Amino acid sequence: MGAPEIRAKRIYEQAHAADGTRVLIERIWPRGVSAESAALNQWLPDLAPTAVLRTWFGRDPERFEAYRAAYERELAGKKQAIAQLQALACRRRCRLTLLYAPRDRVHNHAVILADYLQRLLWLDPEGTEADTPLLAKAGHRARAVAQEVTHVGGA
Questions:
Q1: 88 confidence band (pLDDT: 50, 70, 90)
Q2: Is position 119 within any domain?
Q3: Which residues have CB under 8 Å from 76's CB, separation 6+?
């Protein structure tokens, strides 16, 4: 099995079957979006950046690299939520779409999280590049975590 495809998409865009597993990674439900139109498989608000970090960033592209580093430090402390997301990445069609609200498609936390997950999936436990994704090596653990995940909405 190859690495799961992980991509970021605005929650305001129409849901498609090609999205695979759809996960909202916003702390607060996006304004004007119904549960039906969101077509979510999961909502993981704990993976959103903290309010302090988000406020500091202020959607300023000049601060994006520092924001990336700070957000990745936050993610490193969210092992349970990351494990849930990794498990979802390998479920069904091995395509995971991270849904976010900001208008900026380049400078947002979903882009950072997608990159972070891709790096995690291709590293072995010692942090070196692996021949196969980490989830393929530890598929049984990924399936166990996936079973713990409570689904919101679609299949």
A1: confident
A2: yes
A3: none
pLDDT digits (tens, 9 = 90+) for 130-147: 444 444 443 433 333 333
Say which residues have a Cβ less than 8 Å from residue 128's Cβ, sequence separation at least 6: none
Look up residue 119 and give its two tokens: 């790096």
Q: Look at the chain and report how many structural domains it folds into.
A: 1
CB atoms within 10 A of CB 110: 26
- Other C-beta atoms closer than 10 Å to the C-beta of 76 total 10
Write down the pLDDT at residue 71: 97
Q: What is the mean pLDDT of the chain?
A: 80
- The pTM score is 0.76
In a domain, 58, yes or no: yes
Predicted pLDDT of residue 136: 41
Alpha helices of the chain — where are they, by DSSP H? 35-38, 51-57, 64-76, 79-89, 109-121, 134-137, 139-148
Range of the domain at 57: 5-32+44-148
Largest CA distance in the chain: 44
Strand 21-24 with 95-100, pairing: parallel
